[in-house]
Amino acid sequence: MIKDFFIYLGLGLVLLVLQATWLYGEWINPFRLDLVFIFIVFIATQDQLGMGLILSALLGLWVDILSWGILGLSMTLYPLLLWIYHSVWVRTNIQSLLFKVFSVLILQVLYCFLTYFFLNLSFGQDFTREQSFLSILQSVITMLVSLPLLYLFQVFFGKRPAMG
């Protein structure tokens, strides 16, 4: 379990570095591919909720430091969305790749609107129609990127048979 924690944490940090450097530039501005969010959704499908909550809080803290400048926003929303998705995941029989991909879309839209809500609440920033359209468009792009990523995560980190 400790080994899995550090492997997931390392991969999450690699994805965070990718999203903060190569995938954050003028050519995709104002869209930000949220690779860490896709990874959080994958972690929610694993059987270890406690480890997932800790990982999502740590990755959310680093996303906050690199993105918003407000500590606590992603650090709070990532574990909350992981818990919601994990609760739905374990109570349904729909556990396919397409369910994960559409869940990324729905949860990303929820994440964007909650982020803008808290930014409005904290700093009084207005949320315009253009920002809501861009949030939905960003969510669709993140959903499209999640299809190959979730497949790769499932192939490399899928449930392994127990040794012994």
Describe this structure in words.
With 164 residues, the chain is mostly helical. The chain has 6 helices and no strands. The longest helix has 29 residues, at 129-157. The chain has one domain (2-157): Arp2/3 complex 21 kDa subunit ARPC3 (Orthogonal Bundle). The model has no long low-confidence stretch (mean pLDDT 84). Helix 1 packs parallel to helix 3 (49-66), helix 3 (49-66) runs antiparallel to helix 4 and helix 4 runs antiparallel to helix 5 (97-123).
Describe the SSE topology:
Blueprint lengths: L1 H19 L14 H10 L4 H18 L6 H19 L5 H27 L5 H29 L7
Terminal residue distance = 16 Å
Strand and helix order? HHHHHH
Q: Whole-number average pLDDT?
A: 84
- The radius of gyration over CA amounts to 16 Å
CATH topology: Arp2/3 complex 21 kDa subunit ARPC3
Please indicate the percent range of residues in DSSP E strands (runs of 2 or more).
under 5%
Q: How many structural domains can be distinguished in the coordinates? A: 1
**Low-confidence segments:** none
Q: Kindly state the percentage of residues in helix.
A: over 70%
Shape: globular
Offer a concise description of the structure.
The protein has helices spanning 2-20, 35-44, 49-66, 73-91, 97-123, 129-157. With 164 residues, it is mainly alpha-helical. Helix 4 (73-91) runs antiparallel to helix 5 (97-123).
